[in-house]
């Protein structure tokens, strides 16, 4: 990975809307080189998606998100890969991570209601033969995601009262 590509990735990570022209100016690099580097990284799946971070609590969309710790028995010859693939193919699943520690996979699931998430766990996830146990945690509020703080604390403008 070239130094130019690393710098481009850092800039795009902070703001995916930056144009190649602006990136070229910011990095003092020719625009054609910047465009070529971005095209190569997209083709090589280094850049896989340009996304928007949304503070869903500000929108009238009452989605429920849960993190599920999953203990599994690895498959012979494939390890965790086959089971992780089977899990991440469900549309409710937003993320799957292989973890170190007390459990093997961390699965992020989103549903319309608590009942939807519970149904996913009991009817789709738990019945998988390799799944030994699950532990579900519902997200009540997001304070920060992807380095972005959702709600800044407002300064308290009240006068201090002292005894």
From TrEMBL:
Domain HTH asnC-type: 1-81
PROSITE patterns in UniProt: HTH_ASNC_2
InterPro entries reported for this sequence: AsnC-type_HTH_dom, Dimeric_a/b-barrel, HTH-Siroheme_Decarb, Tscrpt_reg_AsnC-like, Tscrpt_reg_AsnC/Lrp_C, WH-like_DNA-bd_sf, WH_DNA-bd_sf
Keywords per UniProt: DNA-binding, Transcription, Transcription regulation
SUPFAM superfamilies: Dimeric alpha+beta barrel, Winged helix' DNA-binding domain
The name this protein goes by in its record: HTH asnC-type domain-containing protein
């Amino acid at each position: 990975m070239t130094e130019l590509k690393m710098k481009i990735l850092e800039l795009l990570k902070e703001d995916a809307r930056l144009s190649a022209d602006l990136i070229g100016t910011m990095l003092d690099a020719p625009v054609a080189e910047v465009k070529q580097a971005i095209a190569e990284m997209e083709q090589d799946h280094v850049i896989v998606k340009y996304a928007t971070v949304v503070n869903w609590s500000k929108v009238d969309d009452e989605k429920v998100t849960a993190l599920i710790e999953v203990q599994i028995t690895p498959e012979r010859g494939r390890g965790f890969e086959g089971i992780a693939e089977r899990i991440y193919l469900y549309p409710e699943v937003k993320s799957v991570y292989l973890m170190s520690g007390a459990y093997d996979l961390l699965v992020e699931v989103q549903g319309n209601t608590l009942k939807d998430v519970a149904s996913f766990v009991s009817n789709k996830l738990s019945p998988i033969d390799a799944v030994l146990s699950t532990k579900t945690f519902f997200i009540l509020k997001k304070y920060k995601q992807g380095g972005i703080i959702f709600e800044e604390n407002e300064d308290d403008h009240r006068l201090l009262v002292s005894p």
